[in-house]
Predict the structure.
Amino acid sequence: MNFDRIMIRYGEMALKGKNKRAFEQKLQRNLISKLKDFRVTRIEKTQGRMYVLLNGADPQEVMQACQQVFGIHSLSFAVKVEKDEEQLKEAVLLAFQDAENASTFKISSKRTDKTFPIPSQELNPLLGGHILRNTEGVTVDVRDPDVDIKVEVRHEGAYITAQVYPGAGGLPVGTTGKSLLMLSGGIDSPVSGYLTMKRGVAIDAIHFHSPPYTSDRAKQKVIELAQELSKFGTNIKIHVIPFTAIQQKIQREMPQGYSMTIMRRMMMRISERVAEQNNILSITTGESLGQVASQTMESMSAINEVTNYPVIRPLVAMDKLEIIDIARKIGTYDISIRPFEDCCTVFVPKAPKTKPNRQKANYYESNVDFTEDIDKALTESYVIDTAQYKHEELEEFDELF
Ligand code: ATP
Ligand code: MG
């Protein structure tokens, strides 16, 4: 006997009525899309649970994939058998063997189908006895067992599960709307995107690209980051904004100390326009308070002035080390630390103002009209569908950047 499914638990979500249905449908759809490369044919839904039918696919690989899907509290390998004593015995033994290094166990039976003749109090010792007879050095411990084997006798059959694997938590991506993630090639913004997705938010990314100051490799990094993030939800599109002309104009015509603030304000204005055009209701950034000159409270206030869209900043209260930990865990860190410049580092002034204010930013901007430049950048912007994207062989000498 083998496990034939993975049981997915999301039951503790305090969702009711319509919300619950939408939640379940989204979770099911996200699972189907995540598992499309496996030969998993079906996802079964019963009250408050889902089962991924393995259909011969590698159980560990499918488990790992499911563990990346938001909206799942925990998972277990499971096997569904007939409501038959012999089959139940065989199944509990299999479940015990799945738990590595377990030497104590307990059986917790639940009988929702009262037509099944053996009550739970009798089923526990009956099935436990079978494990004891077929193993060595194993004992029952009802208080603190290494493994708690759950047997559920339902109308449609009996389900046996043991080891509990943690799920990714959060809410299914797509259940709480969409946000436009300002994605640089750095460490922070991908983590920020991940945390936003965890709360059920679907993501489009926007990237400001400044050729020839930033190379194709820098852009490629962003594409790879978006592809990595796509593992946790649906495929992420990147709106690429040619930003060179605006940056050069800022360099030329704005006071050095304010060039950083004004550049950020331009990014924010353009992001808002892209969000609006795509029916996206918020903007997400990787800002964290106090990290760099542009991330002081004064900076945030000056930058935020130009949009009234909600700006989601999941990292605002996190330490760099905590952010790096998450980046490592989600697989974006190694891509982020590749040494390719982004548009901000190239143009960063020697002494950016760490305490800019709104009045001055407005004053400097009022002397120069950026409207056409912004419109032009939007007209020349293009979308990269990261799912379709094939990485080209880039010239070797690009490495030297
Ligand atoms: P990150 O590690 O995400 O690059 P950072 O610590 O380098 O962040 P900043 O350079 O101040 O911080 O950027 C703050 C935020 O602005 C980024 O997290 C990102 O959301 C956005 N951002 C910066 N540069 C770009 C860019 N070229 N394209 C899109 N968004 C950007
Ligand atoms: Mg950066």
